[in-house]
Amino acid sequence: MPRLYFKYGTMGSSKSAQALMCQFNYQQKGMKVMLVKPSLDNRGDDETPMVRSRIGLKSECLTISHDQSFIDMFNNYKQQNGCDCIIVDEAQFCTSKQIEQLKQLTAQVPVLCYGLLTDFTCKLFEGSKRLVELADSLQEIKSVCKCGHKATVNARFINGKCVDDGPVVFIGGDEAYENMCWWCWQEELNK
Ligand SMILES: [Zn+2]
Fold first, then answer.
1. Cα–Cα distance between 180 and 133 in angstroms, integer?
2. How far is the CA of 157 from the centre of ligand 1 (A)?
3. Using one digit for the tens of pLDDT, what is the confidence trace for 142-187?
4. Domains, the chain
5. Rounded CA gap, 81 and 34, in Å?
6. Which residues are catalytic?
7. pLDDT score recorded for residue 41
8. Are the C-beta atoms of 114 and 146 separated by less than 8 Å?
């Protein structure tokens, strides 16, 4: 039976690059990959939706909104192109229901999800929570804090100030993120 994978890491831990390398590996062997990201992620404002990595790799992808079904999307895609594998980037933004649909689809093809585990308050995203509950394989993509410890927190900065409250998806304003360890995060919050 194919499996549901969740490969998680902080921002800047090369998740998108790894998703694209995985797609490349499948395609090199002549296999068809359905590459998808939730439409909430508006990084870059391309006409054509893309999965982009910070090191310059990119690939066209499909987008899925909260009220769409992965099962319908897969059936259409398979009919038109064939499909041997599903890869989802930014999987933290999927709904619980969508993760359950992906689990169902592993009866047919492997599903590889890449995403953040926790938000800027260090709490699980909805999609990530369901993935931790349902994935057959959990794998951490490690990254390092500026102090040398492992980075586990996606710290949010607004106008240069580290904050741990506000909406999960911030709209407007000067917002930035930095991955860091718990202790450096505490220090930033107390500044
Ligand atoms: Zn640190």
1. 25
2. 16
3. 999 999 999 999 999 998 999 998 887 766 667 889 999 999 999 9
4. 4-140 (3.40.50.300), 153-189 (no CATH)
5. 9
6. 90
7. 47
8. no
DSSP 6: E
CA distances to 12, 71, 109, 118, 163 from 101, rounded to whole Å, are: 28, 6, 12, 21, 34
What's the gap between Cα 72 and its chain centre?
21
For residue 149, the CA-to-ligand 1 centroid distance in Å is 5
CA–CA distance, 5 with 14 (Å, rounded to integer): 16
Q: What is the DSSP letter of 71?
A: H
The CA distance from 92 to 3, in Å, is 18
Q: What does the pLDDT read at residue 171?
A: 63
DSSP 3-state assignment of 99?
helix
Q: What is the pLDDT at residue 46?
A: 52
For ligand 1, the distance from its centroid to the CA atom of residue 137, given in whole angstroms, is: 28
Cα-based angle 98, 44, 87 (whole degrees, multiple of 5): 35
Q: Tell me which DSSP letter residue 89 carries.
A: S
> What confidence tens digit (pLDDT) does each residue in 42-100 have?
545 557 899 999 889 999 999 999 999 999 999 999 999 999 999 999 999 999 999 99
Q: Is 122 helix (H, G, I), strand (E, B) or coil?
A: coil
Report how far residue 134's alpha carbon sits from residue 91's, in angstroms, rounded to the nearest whole number: 13
Q: Which residue bears the tokens 């054509």?
A: 48
